[in-house]
Amino acid sequence: MTRALTFIFRNWPLKVAAIVLATLLYGGLVLSQTTQEFPGSVPIERENQPGDVILQSDLGSVSGIRYIAPADLGLRVDTSTFRAVVDLSEVEPGEVGVSVVVRVTAVDPRIQILDFTPRRIIVRLEGVTERVVPITPVLGSIPDQLDVGDPVIDEETATVRGPDSLVARVAEVQAHVSIDPSGIDINELVDLVPVDNAGERLPQVDVMPARVRVRVAVFTDRQTRTLPVSPVVVGTPAAGFEIASVEVEPVVVSGEGDPDDLVGLDRADTEPVTVSGASSMVTQTVALQLPDGVEALGSGSVTVTVRLRSVTATRTFEAGLSLVGARADRRYELSTDRVLVTIGGSIADLDRLSAATLVLTVDVTGLDDGVHAVPVSANLVTGLTLLTASPNPVQVTVSTPVASEPPPASPSPGPSPTL
Fold first, then answer.
1. Are 164 and 126 in contact (CB under 8 A)?
2. Predicted local confidence at residue 418, as pLDDT
3. Cα separation of 279 and 134, whole Å?
4. pTM above 0.90, yes or no
5. Are 229 and 268 spatial neighbours (Cβ–Cβ below 8 Å)?
6. Which residues of the chain have pLDDT under 50?
7. Which of 34, 60, 291, 345 could share a disulfide with 384, CB 3.0–4.6 Å?
8. 312-399: what fold?
């Protein structure tokens, strides 16, 4: 204890002087800086927000920022001098807000932040989802002297994306169209607006696509004309195939429009039906291509059926003959050993047929001796047909071989003479 007291009070004048000097230095440091309060506010920013959520609360701003800055800083202090942020990386989405810490920093590291308000705020994140909803064209008021047809849109549905709670309320997206009193047909891109069941627009919901083309025929003197449907077929079928027939259902449609628009209109073309590379029947439901100002009554679409068939051709070969049903005890002589034949079928099948492997048959089963006219035949793969053969029939001479004379018998050896 004595040693401790001795250590404390040893050279006490020097120790007191050191404390006084430190106090003076700290006081000088404080006097060299000025404690100030920023009169404005700084918007709170967000950082580290996950990509699959959306912020559903107002972050607000901080105010009452008290700070210390060197007197000789010489900078203009304004809103850009400070930055207020909240970290959203740990905030879970949900219906209830979460308290998070607000962090305020100065751009210049020589500025020391002492205090600000608020220190914490409540934030709420919500998950982001998307779904497909129908597109509904909505026409404005129609002038008394005009009449309009049914709106036609390029797309039937759209995808809406946004907060879970708002996307669940979307009933449809609407395309609003105004009818001009001049009677000009409508053909324009229109913005899509997401609405709920009451028709109220829903904010914070994105629509993809954002716009859709809407066509509306506007009539001043509506008339109707019956038009035959003309199917439009484009493209080339696969090699070895050709178009056999084109059918359309229905074969006629009713088109309506003003007299000037119907003048010279004698048919209703379809949208192109492609058969490129096809090797079997093609059936498509397509819309009609009618001029502006004319629209089809009903659905405005038809079904086109394109039937294909193999491209047929003929080729001539020289082929050998082979007997069928020949007897071993008969002799057969043919009037020719080769026949010139013409075979028909698809090009693909004909390409696979080789003259070296083509053999025609002559059926001699049950033929007796004599001269017979026998037709030639060919065993061909399905799809190939023997069209002609020359000569046909061929003459077959059947005979019985003459038995050959038996060779003379060798004399049998006699007994040896007796001596």
1. yes
2. 35
3. 36
4. no
5. yes
6. 31-32, 405, 409-419
7. 345
8. RNA Polymerase Alpha Subunit; Chain A, domain 2 (2.170.120)
Whether the CA torsion 379, 381, 387, 390 is positive or negative: it is negative
pLDDT digits (tens, 9 = 90+) for 300-316: 889 999 999 887 788 88
Selection from 99, 97, 67 nearest residue 83 by Cα: 67
CA distance linking residue 158 with residue 173, whole number of Å: 7
CATH topology of domain 223-310: RNA Polymerase Alpha Subunit; Chain A, domain 2 (2.170.120)
Show the 3-state SS of the chain: CHHHHHHHHCCHHHHHHHHHHHHHHHHHHHHHEEEEEECCCEEEEEECCCCCEEECCCCCEEEEEEEEEECCCCCCCCHHHEEEEEECCCCCCCCCCEEEEEEEEECCCCCEEEEEECCEEEECEEEEEEEEEEEEEEECCCCCCCEECCCEECCCEEEEEEEHHHHCCCCEEEEEECCCCCCCCEEEEEEEEEECCCCCECCCCEEECCEEEEEECEECCCEEEEEEEECCEECCCCCCEEEEEEEEECCEEEEEECHHHHCCCCCEEECCEECCCCCCCEEEEEEEECCCCEEECCCCEEEEEEEEEECEEEEEEEEEEEEECCCCCCEEEECCCEEEEEEEEEHHHHHCCCHHHCEEEEECCCCCCEEEEECEECCCCCCCEEEEEECCCEEEEEECCCCCCCCCCCCCCCCCCCC
Q: Where in the sequence of the chain do the CATH 2.170.120.40 domains occur? A: 128-219, 223-310
Please state, in angstroms and rounded to a whole number, the distance separating the CA atoms of residues 405 and 109: 135
Please check whether residue 148 is in contact with residue 219, taking contact to mean a CB–CB distance below 8 angstroms: yes
Q: In the numeric block, which tokens belong to residue 178?
A: 């105004």
Residue with tokens 């210390």: 68
Task: Specify whether the CB–CB gap between 79 and 40 falls below 8 A.
Answer: yes
State the pLDDT at residue 247: 95
Classify burial at 147, counting beta carbons within 10 Å of its beta carbon; exposed 0-12, middle 13-18, buried 19 or more: middle
Tokens of 206: 């994105």
Q: What is the pLDDT of residue 72?
A: 66
* From the candidate CATH numbers 3.40.50.300, 3.10.450.50, 3.40.50.2300, 2.170.120.40, the one assigned to the domain spanning 128-219: 2.170.120.40
Characterize the bridge pairing of strands 172-177 and 125-139.
Answer: parallel
Rg of the chain over CA atoms, in angstroms? 50
Residue 411's pLDDT is 45
Alpha-carbon span 211 to 207, nearest angstrom: 8
Backbone φ and ψ of 326, nearest 5° = -70, 145
Under 8 Å between Cβ of 127 and 92: no
